[in-house]
């Protein structure tokens, strides 16, 4: 009897569950982080396969020898399977599915059932991908798909060094020929999606970018791994958040979770990934965004450590600040990193403009008329030529960072590598290749820092540390300058280096580098009217839709018909006295439209939400601010002196207006995006 009462009590409690969004968001963030870590593993193995095709094609017969197969079995047995993930994840997911099944349908409980079911299925799906991916990583490590680039590259035939990047560019151009907006670095698109409020990053583009970038990097193109993973993580987060019915604000946090987890998984640096999400993607540090972003970074890092190498990206280097005067040397390094990042940004955009036919002369217009596969193949060929001058050009080039940190590279090599890596990355991405700029910036900074440290230590041997310390700090300075995110650069290198003493030089170099690059870009960029200026200078009456207001006593059946046929999916509602009260939206019908018994009982005033009515001469910036405060996508517009019908201003109308303005500026050859956003 007592057991029956307990079961009855638990079932009754489950049927009262509402599962508000604040409690779901951290869980969704952790699930997004899990898939970002899986994306990092998939991406790394795709690059490994492409690299293996390039490096190990001649050794294919050797992979079937008995000793190689024995090595494979040993690798599989020693792989990081982490069976505890399944022991924890499967019961939780099955419990959520069971709870979703026993909760009675109807009202807000339908939303609870849907969210529980989706999150549980995503968890099970992540586990089903994790273990095959661990096995694939073990196979890649045995069959020679993971190479020590400094040792393997000199043994590559000269014709293959030229042919591989060319064919890689051709394949990527063909893959992205009908989707040219997918090539490039990936991070600016995520920043724009969050800032514009759209929070939509198509999932198919995320998968396409991962494949295209793996081909670019694996075939020798000069690009980074982080951009595609950031874009892929944000694309997955966008899809999950929209399915779960999150608001615009919650969607932006979830996109930041996916992007931050991608950085955490790429660099094995969870703190830096979380800081990156808040500083670069969201541009804010509020308490409510901490828990989902932190959980996403932790989940992404844990998963990536299973499917990637657990070893840190940087070998531990002993470091100490030799004297207080050495801070001035690190300030000079910050200036150098800021100038390099500025040159990188300008050259990247210049090369893109050149390959698209926007420059003067004969060659640029000729290239602009060629299809994307041809342009990307020519860019790959140019990159292959540069490999003969410096091996750091090949792929992401991060294998050489540890050599620079250990002080094992000569001065001329460091200078040449810094300049050629900058040029090669600009050509690879600008010609139509796909990949990120984060890793190449780290390599450029490490080479520049190593060269700078060599000079400083040569002239002041007793007052300065070795060149390797400057290489590590230069990495942080270049990353901070390129992203204009000093905290991200500081925390990333602090985490990777594992040295507490290096934080002071990092603070000096990263702050100066990011401030200088930001100042130079803002000063030299074309002055185009920003989105903020457009919104502040445009009145609501320009974009509002005139619609008849719904009387307070309109029956639910008639209200439903009007809402479903309205263009905006919302209608203004009057109060019983005939004054404008607020709006009713299609989303508000979700809780009642299935319950036929409610139709005779409810009227428009029962579902309407009280909202402030905007005067027609209100600017769009204020309208968007009110929408954000009220967490809605439409606001009523009051009539002028009662002579005109009521109106609605929607977020979608504002978005279309900005898109039209951007297209108009793009047709004139101007950038519609602020330089700070366009150059991440």
TrEMBL record:
Every CBS domain range: 607-664
PANTHER family with a match to the protein in the record: CHLORIDE CHANNEL PROTEIN CLC-E
Native species: Corallococcus sicarius
Transmembrane segments: 24-47, 85-104, 116-138, 158-176, 253-277, 289-308, 328-351, 372-394, 400-424, 436-460, 466-482, 502-521
Keywords from the UniProt entry: CBS domain, Chloride, Chloride channel, Ion channel, Ion transport, Membrane, Transmembrane, Transmembrane helix, Transport
Short name of one Pfam family: CBS
Entry GO MF terms: chloride channel activity
Protein name in the entry: Chloride channel protein
Classification via Gene3D superfamilies: CBS-domain, Clc chloride channel
Domain of life: Bacteria
Membrane-topology descriptor: Multi-pass membrane protein
Primary location: membrane
Entry GO CC: chloride channel complex
Intracellular or extracellular location(s): Membrane
């Amino acid at each position: 009897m007592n057991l029956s009462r307990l079961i009855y009590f638990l079932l009754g409690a489950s049927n009262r569950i509402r599962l508000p969004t604040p409690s779901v968001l951290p869980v969704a963030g952790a699930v997004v982080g899990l898939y970002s870590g899986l994306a990092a593993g998939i991406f790394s193995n795709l690059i490994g396969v492409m690299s293996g095709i390039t490096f190990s094609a001649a050794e294919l017969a050797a992979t079937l020898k008995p000793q190689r197969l024995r090595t494979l079995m040993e690798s599989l047995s020693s792989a990081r399977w982490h069976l505890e993930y399944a022991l924890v994840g499967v019961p939780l997911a099955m419990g959520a599915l069971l709870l979703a099944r026993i909760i009675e349908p109807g009202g807000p409980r339908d939303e609870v059932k849907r969210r529980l079911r989706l999150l549980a299925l995503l968890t099970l799906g992540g586990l089903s991908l994790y273990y095959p991916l661990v096995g694939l990583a073990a196979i890649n490590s045995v069959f020679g798909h993971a190479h020590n680039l400094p040792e393997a590259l000199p043994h590559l035939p000269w014709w293959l060094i030229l042919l591989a990047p060319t064919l890689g560019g051709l394949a990527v151009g063909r893959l992205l020929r009908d989707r040219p907006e997918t090539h490039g670095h990936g991070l600016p698109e995520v920043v724009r999606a969050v800032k514009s409020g759209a929070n939509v990053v198509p999932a198919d583009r995320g998968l396409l970018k991962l494949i295209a970038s793996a081909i670019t990097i694996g075939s020798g193109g000069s690009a980074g791994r982080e951009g595609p993973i950031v874009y892929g993580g944000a694309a997955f987060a966008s899809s999950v958040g929209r399915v779960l019915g999150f608001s615009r604000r919650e969607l932006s946090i979830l996109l930041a979770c996916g992007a931050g987890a991608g950085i955490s998984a790429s660099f094995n640096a969870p703190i830096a990934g979380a800081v990156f999400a808040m500083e670069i993607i969201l541009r804010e540090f509020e308490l409510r965004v901490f828990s989902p972003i932190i959980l996403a970074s932790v989940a992404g890092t844990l998963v990536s450590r299973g499917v990637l190498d657990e070893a840190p990206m940087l070998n531990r280097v002993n470091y100490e600040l030799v004297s207080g005067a050495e801070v001035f040397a690190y300030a000079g390094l910050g200036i150098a990193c800021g100038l390099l990042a500025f040159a990188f940004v300008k050259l990247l955009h210049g090369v893109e403009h050149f390959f698209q036919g926007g420059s003067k002369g004969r060659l640029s217009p000729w290239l602009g008329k060629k299809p994307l596969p041809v342009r990307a193949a020519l860019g790959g060929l140019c990159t292959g030529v540069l490999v003969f001058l410096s091996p750091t050009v090949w792929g992401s080039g991060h294998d050489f960072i540890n050599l620079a940190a250990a002080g094992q590279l000569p001065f001329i090599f460091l200078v040449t590598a810094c300049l050629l890596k900058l040029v090669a990355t600009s050509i690879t991405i600008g010609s139509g290749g796909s990949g990120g700029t984060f890793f190449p910036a780290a390599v450029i900074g490490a080479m520049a820092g190593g060269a700078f440290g060599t000079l400083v230590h040569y002239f002041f041997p007793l007052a300065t540390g070795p060149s390797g310390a400057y290489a590590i700090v230069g990495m942080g300075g270049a990353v901070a300058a390129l992203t204009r995110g000093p905290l991200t650069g500081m925390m990333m290198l602090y985490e990777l280096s594992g040295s507490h003493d290096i934080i002071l030089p990092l603070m000096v170099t990263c702050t100066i580098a990011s401030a200088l690059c930001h100042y130079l870009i803002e000063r030299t960029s074309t002055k185009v009217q920003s989105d903020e200026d457009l919104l502040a200078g445009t009145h609501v009456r320009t974009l509002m839709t005139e619609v008849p207001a719904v009387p307070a006593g309109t029956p639910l059946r008639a209200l439903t018909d009007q809402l479903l046929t309205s263009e905006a999916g919302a209608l203004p509602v009057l109060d019983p006295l005939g004054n404008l009260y607020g709006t009713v939206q299609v989303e508000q019908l979700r809780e009642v439209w299935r319950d036929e018994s409610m139709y005779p009982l409810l009227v428009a005033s029962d579902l309407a939400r009280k909202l402030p009515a905007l005067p027609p001469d209100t600017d769009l910036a204020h309208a968007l601010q009110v929408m954000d405060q009220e967490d809605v996508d439409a606001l009523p517009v009051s009539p002028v002196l009662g002579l005109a019908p009521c109106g609605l201003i929607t977020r979608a109308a504002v978005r279309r207006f900005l898109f039209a303005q951007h297209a108009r500026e793009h047709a004139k050859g101007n950038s519609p995006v602020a330089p700070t956003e366009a150059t991440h």
